[in-house]
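Quick one: Integral membrane protein from Streptomyces alboflavus, structure tokens please.
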Amino acid sequence: MTDMTDPGSFTLYRKQTAPGLGTCVIGGAIAAGLGLGAFAVLVMALWISSPYPDSGPGGALHVAAALWLLAHGTELVRTETLSGVPAPVGVTPLLLLALPAWLVHRAARDAADPDERALGARTAWAGVVGGYLLVATAAAVYAAGGELRPSWPSAAAHVPLLAVAAAGFGVWTAHGRPPGPLPDSVRRAAAALPVPAAVRRLFVPERLLGAARAAVAGTAVLVGGGALLVGVSVVLHGGPVRESFLTLTTVWSGRFAVLLLALALVPNAAVWGAAYGLGPGFVLGTGTVVAPLDAAAAPMLPPFPLLAAVPEAGPGSPLTWAVGVVPGVAGCVLGWFAARAATAGESAWSAGRTAAGAGTAAVLCGGACAALAGLAGGPLGAEALAEFGPVWWLTGLAAVAWTGVAGVPVALGVRWWRLRVRARARAAVEAERVRVEGLGQAPQDVEAEGKRGRGRGIGRWAAGLWRGRGRKAAEGEAAAGLVPGGTAGVVAARTEPVPEAGATPTTGAAPTADPLPAADVVPPADVVPPTDLAPPTAPSPTQPHRPPPDPSPHPHPPPHPHLRPPPHPRPRPSSPTTSSPTRAATPSRDEPPADVDRRSGIRVRSWCNFGAQHGSRASVVQGKTPIIRWEM
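--- reply ---
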């Protein structure tokens, strides 16, 4: 029997019971039910908290179903009016549009997940859309019996459009958003269109994708700038905005509902602000246009916070003309993204193709702005309030003009600058390659040489400091070859012969022992010499101590003021196996040891002796070259 707690068996069980089309239909229906239920809960909460409910729970549920359809873009019709004439309500709060779109997207993405489902993309998409439309149809039939009734032509157009688009995006997301070619049917239809070859070349996937990204960036800047304009206007009209909010209703539940409605309409206000910055402005009733150049007197509007922030009627002023900065910045951003796409590959686009790409991005940006303007506006009543919001086609044309005029020159300029920087970088790399080939070095050798060169000045300064003659003398010795290498912290030493013990030094005599360096060297302590060196022999008590003569022609300089003579070394204990009196003898405290210079008071030890006594701290630089360590 298979253990179902095993992850492998659970995966096998899940694949064996993989859902089909029916499960996708149920998923779409659940997505629609969740959205409808969220609206129902909100409306019921407001109905319960209202001190003067106009109807019972059935009326509240009818309103919830109508608002859910309004969130899809469906136009509602209010039948009970003072004049008896039905009044349409077609302004869709764009923030409410996000909830059903997200739910359909999630349902389609989960249904088309290739890791959990064995269905095709089309099957999952069709199942989710079908289940969602079944619930939407039932909700429309139910809402038709309330005060807010959906317009059937509008519902038949907007609800399926949102479901199809959101489900398609969800299926595309489930498959990793592949940037592959369009379906065969779409490509055949596009090939059948009578489009010139020059225009057809603009729709190459790579160029079209770059233009789409630039258009999205420009549209985002336009909408963001519109939101900024709305915020500034609300601050400037703070008094009327506050008064309208307080006088619209006096109960807390009503004020809470007004606040929620104002927040849901904030994206609409941002689109209205973008249309105002582009120039066409927006309409507050039939024949009433509010634009930066001129604003007509608006009719009697209901007291609403966002409507109280509308600019006053009258001719334009420098303050209202300054809103043209928003589309100008949007055009510059669009041009920068177009130039970035033009220079992204190894071979950059030509100037003509770059200009064409920026123009295509401007057209796409205009189309997006026109669509947003159409969604953000609509009728709020009959007669004078039949038109409300920006005019979609004027907004789209203004967006194309602004972003095209500002974006194409910016795209060409940024392209030229990026290509110039790239050419200079390539020229620098080529010059460096030629220099390296002339020196006969590899690129890594050049890099190491550059790292070593940063410490050469320190090495010359250190040599001059220890010799007491300053930096200029040290640089002169380094140039003359007395101080080869020139690396930081390491100075090559002059080697002098060391006379044997008890022998009188003779000028010009050949050395009889290994040369012992007599320079002042401070080697780095990162290399440990071999530890099998013989320990030094102490001077015999019967033989007088004679310090080695100074073979250098010049006297030793006085000790550096920052250097102090070290204390006398402690005697090395005698070996337990040796009882020779020579090992037990120690130099007198009144007389400095043999390795301490009488004039400078600085201890000088060869690397062999020092390594024998302190093997873990000794250093060897440049292979086996003997060096001297100055101990401070």
